[in-house]
Amino acid sequence: MPCVLVIDDDEMMCCLLAGVVSSLGHEVQCAKTLTQGLKLSEKHAYDVVFLDVGLPDGNGLDILPHIRGRDPSPEVIIITGHADSDGAELAIKSGAWDYIEKGSSIESITLPFVRALQFRNERLNCKTVSLNHEGIIGASPKIRHCLDQVAFAANSETNILITGESGTGKELFAWAIHNNSLRSGKNFVVVDCAALPETLIESLLFGHEKGAFTGADKAKDGLILQADGGTLFLDEVGELSLPLQKAFLRVLQEHRFRPVGGEREYSSDFRLVSATNKDLESLAAEGRFREDLLFRLRAFQIDLPPLRERKEDILKIALYHLSELSEKCQGEVKAFSPDFLEALAAYSWPGNIRELYHALDRAYFSAQFESRLYPQHLPDHIRIFLARKNLKSLTHPGNPPLPSLPATIELPLLRDFRHAMEKEYLLKLLAASKGNIPEACRISGLSRSGLYTLLQKHQIFKDGE
Q: How many CB atoms lie under 10 A from the CB of residue 451?
């Protein structure tokens, strides 16, 4: 029987959703906070999770990747009393099934729920495919979601657009799509759109006939024909000029082209995968990228997370790279000092995995014959960043200024100070509650047994007890 989790602090909404789920014959559990919801999701396998955005202890969208990171991952339906387009975009990109505003009709809630269950059943009943993702390291919820998308993309022939900041591994994911597809035995042809020389672009892409231009002493196949039967990867597709975008649009539509200086057309059965670190929608709005080409490129889109959003993967990535590096250099595998790992986690990695690899290379060779890596082995710009970050945390405007104390002042032991402050608090608590234990528990947040334990510890008793 499908099991559903509702994470919402609105009592009426919980009752409504629980009623909808129960009426369809499914089990349902409710949580009123993010903390409770996460604990339940870790203990039980849910098929569908209804997740509120505004909760007492945070934003529901923040835990969406963690809930989706379960194996098998539940379908998540976002419910909110204050819907906004940015929230909907973030939810969908994080893997949510749907985004529903509170106050919607029962039918508007029931239909997405039923569809989500149907989709989940079909997905779980599909034959499991062993995915070859060589070079893609990590098991964070966000990277697992991307690998799920790779599996889907590999089993289709649709055009794929991979987006992400520079250094996030877009070409690795393009290779993974190719290697797991039926075209894996054919060519994987890379077109670096940012490096195409203006004078030779058409010749490189479409090929040319003998004598087509000065220096064309023989006919040559272009990259598009070389990709026949395989995959054509347009790296940094946002760098294509408008004239070339127009020419390439026809190639995508017809899969036919004419070499430079040629009179007849050729066909090429390629599968297209593109990648960019630019916002193509913004470029299209500014007239710098063809909207019709964008629609064709992103029939299916994979958004790669930056490294700062998947820091739990840094250790695995570092171990993988240093193991490869030591094997390549025929050297020992170096250990990490605890503060070295802390430094890797504290840095923001604007250059993403590519920058991490370069930093690890530098650390490895700086250590020379040492068996352990320390922060001192990292590049200077990273050490400077971390030093400045530590200084800012000490002088942050939100922190109270450090008091200036006489050099001869004597401080008590911390445990004695805590003991005295705890006793003082209890005395003030009893005074504020006028000795009423239930009222004292309400004010302090302590349980009755917890309060009695502390009162006995400090030998404080109510009159007559």
A: 19
Which has the closest alpha carbon to 50: 121, 99, 123?
99
| Topology annotation, domain 3-125 | Rossmann fold (3.40.50)
Angstrom distances, CA of residue 288 to CA of 217, 281, 291, 362: 36, 10, 9, 39
Quick one: tokens of 337? 């000092």
The top-scoring range by mean pLDDT among 56-65, 186-195, 324-333, 448-457 is 186-195
Say if domain 141-209+218-303 classifies as CATH 3.40.50.300. Answer: yes
Percent of the chain surpassing pLDDT 70:
93
Show the tokens assigned to 321. 């790279």
Amino acid at 199: T
pTM of the predicted model as reported, rounded to 2 decimal places: 0.70
Q: How many CB atoms lie within 10 A of CB 200?
A: 12
